[in-house]
Amino acid sequence: MRRVIVPQMKLGELAIADIKLDPKSRDDIPQILRGLQHIYTTPELREQIFAILKEVLPEHQIEGKTVKADPNNGRPGMTQWQILVLGVLRLGLNADYDRIQELANEHKTLRQMLGHSSWADEKYYNLQTLKDNLRLFTPEILDRLNRVIVRAGHRALKKKPEEGVVGRCDSFVVETDVHFPTDINLLLDAIRKVIEISAELSSTHNLPGWRQHHYHQRQFKRQYRIVQRLKHSTSKDESKQQRKEQDIKEAHRVYLDLAEGYLTRAEQTRQHVSPHDPLFVIRLSELNDFIKHARRQIDQIDRRVLQGEHIPHNEKVFSLFQPHTEWISKGKAGVPVELGLRVCIMEDRDRFILHHRVMVKSTDDQVAFAMVGETKQKFPTLRAVSMDKGFYSPANQEVLKSRLDCVVLPKKGRLSQADKARESDPEFVNLRKQHSAVARNIQRLGAVLRQQEQEAAQRKRGSYKKAA
Fold this sequence. Notes:
This protein is an alpha/beta fold. Helices cover 51% and strands 10% of the residues.
């Protein structure tokens, strides 16, 4: 049976309430651990959190359906408390599983928070164990935990319910790990994977044609480099310009012909592999996807370079491996383009995150109403929201005014007298000045508690006076 915590302390184990965290450290790990310590040592808060954590159970397949595992069967693996600690740490640090494994096995204070004694405890966290357990944090579970933590933060700050919640809404780009996309390097990625998968299938089925697959990949990349280095002529001589344009088109034509040859051979290989063999279904599906990607890129390169067409933005793909990646131009100084996904965040004036929304092919003004409505469902006392000009539209201005006591939504462009009067209102000005960046909630809770503890210690010591 998976347990929330291990109730019996081991020899040498330190109670979580007694774990000492460096109050002078400015690193984010002590702040996160302090927030977790507060959760564990506050009975009412701990009960609410643990009640939700009891639902964090592994899943398995029965007759093609995904069902929760029986909590009374199977090995415990990790307790829910350990899953919470390491899961929060991974999200708070934006770390990969390799770093979390290193911290879980080597970080002394973190191991104390996980319930391990300082000696004679050789518990080792395997990488696969961490992946299998930490992925159990579903968005629904995280959302429910978040509401409890935000309310705990408000209590720690001694917020009165009648004050209501004042939100700040902003969006930012979560960048994906992709290289700068061009149609020719996307074709290079596609053909590289087509050759790699075809060679693997060919080797398994003893098929001819791909014995020199490494050579083929090098040949195609060599032609890519030739195309990549070609530049349009800046000469004023029209004949030189035309010759250069012809060289560019010829290099692209050779590049596309080479790609077509590899795709033809890959499709011949695919025909000799059974699509019903369960061992190769996934690889065949991947091969089909990369062939489709390659065909699309060949078509776009042919239209752009050889036929002189302009490729519409909505036809373009910016990564084969992370196809959700979008080309985002927010007009920031020094950052003309960002590659990733927009995420919209609603936080309160104490920098606790109330709600977030991933913006797939949408802009700020298209999510303003949904963000306020969804946040108000979770936090009914939301009474005011501050947004920047990117969220403005006349419809948003009118609808949000009916949902909130105060809407700070500056208008784009020239202001009318009514707009000037509205934007000069003291509450409008005050809330707009407080519009700031987002923060992580448990880390923020830990930071608040540490600040309160430092202030209490300062009051206890009293002010320092020089001797006469």
